[in-house]
Amino acid sequence: MCVSKVILPTPVLIILLILNISFVSSHRYRHNDAARLHRASQRSYDHQSASPSSSSSSSSSSSSSTKASSTAPELPGFYFDPEKNRYFRLLPGHNNCNPLTKEQLQEKEREKQRNKMLAEDDKPNKVGLLLAHEIKVSGMRRHKLEIQSTDNSSPNMDNFRLIVGDSACERVFTVNDVSHGGCKYGIMNFSSSSQGSLSVEMCDNLYFTNRKVNSICWASVNYPDSHVLLCLVGMADTPGCVSLLPASLFSNSNPDQPGMLCSFKISSAWSCAWCLNPQFDKTFSTGLSRRVIVKDAETGRTQTYCVGSDVLAQQFALRVPVLFNGCRSGEIFSIDLRQRSRGDQSWKATRFRQESAITSVRVLQDENYLLAADMLGQIKLWDVRVTKPVQEYKGHYNEHAYLPVHVNEHEGLLLAVGQDCYTRLWSLKDGHLLRTIPSPHPAANDLIPSIVFSSNLGGSTGLPGLLMAVKHDLYYFPYNTDYQEREQQMTRFDKASSPDDF
């Protein structure tokens, strides 16, 4: 039997050789660490993209390397670390053998960004071409406050959940989560010194409840801010209720009579508001599931308005007895208390809508304008006369949390804390984002800061600034440019007066 040899042309042999090499390389790539491939592509990229002058300049080389790492190809199942310049295997889930997950990497990046912003906040601010309005905001520096009680101890070891200041900002009502369940609430009293420092003292009496506090507002029953109105969510066999508590209950040293103390059984109350209009000065409202209840606290007379959605946010206007409501459906509507409830909802004086559930409504002093925030992170300023948004404040972050907005018209500021735990300040007039303040603690859904901003923290002669409660700590950010200078002068004076100097 004769076997003849087949002689292939040289070009065909070369093609087969290339295909074989390609197959072997592909096989190795699937079984080896992906970092080798990147390092090879990195050298190739640097060689192709390097300019003649880059070899003699270290800065150009560094720039080229950074550019190359930023264009590293995404490989399924791998994570590229630009600092170590290599890939790491990334699998779904996590255990001891696989410490890297996508969620952990995202958390690491967020924490890195937060620490960077905290470091920037600690540096002396660069004024540059900032306007006076922006200088004050950029100069706000964090100062931790010591919370004292009457026995000179620091009593608060439970995480803050809510803080709400009274109209004079001499007192702040606090709600803290208790580790074994439920919450406690009380009042902090503030005072300021001529040296520009702020002191805070916790009240004598703290009250505990095994129910969740959904909403709080100050109420003027006997005199301005004489009471506190709380919405408590029902649980198990305990129904929900709205409680009207005299502020004097929270102090053993107050000789005054407590005043009116009452509780109304109301289930699933999402929000509450107190009316300051003289015609209805003992009236409060609660927003429920598909209902709004307006009640006279003295007589108990009740008016019920049926709506098509849960009412998550409420506020009364001052000059006219009108209640604004924000719903889970995104609808915002007003109720004129002088009109009776009717089944056709013709009592809705004004109605307009945003794209998501409304978490906060704030009526401006003009009362023709209303601020509304929703669960898409949108904050809009509405002209209620034409039901059109006239300004939008961008940058707020919210996906599903029940988060308020705060406005200080005297300073021209709008403030909000996002679900990402960043506090943002905007110019109320033009919507410009003036400042983003990171939380002093790592971000978490149960550690979203609660804030109060006032031009007079501690009373009429108090200090302007921002209070931030997060975890079990309380911080003060002064809203003036000379607070830091006065503090530094006092520190230098104390050092100069030290016995070691004599």
UniProtKB/TrEMBL annotation:
The chain crosses the membrane at residues 6-24. Gene3D superfamilies: YVTN repeat-like/Quinoprotein amine dehydrogenase (2.130.10.10). Residues 39-75 are annotated as: Disordered. GO terms for cellular component: Cul4-RING E3 ubiquitin ligase complex. Keywords: Membrane, Repeat, Transmembrane, Transmembrane helix, WD repeat. InterPro entries: CUL4-DDB1_E3_ligase_receptor, WD40/YVTN_repeat-like_dom_sf, WD40_repeat_dom_sf, WD40_rpt. Residues 49-73 have a biased composition (Low complexity). PANTHER family: DDB1 AND CUL4 ASSOCIATED FACTOR 4, DDB1- AND CUL4-ASSOCIATED FACTOR 4-RELATED. This is WD repeat domain 21. It comes from Anabas testudineus (Climbing perch).
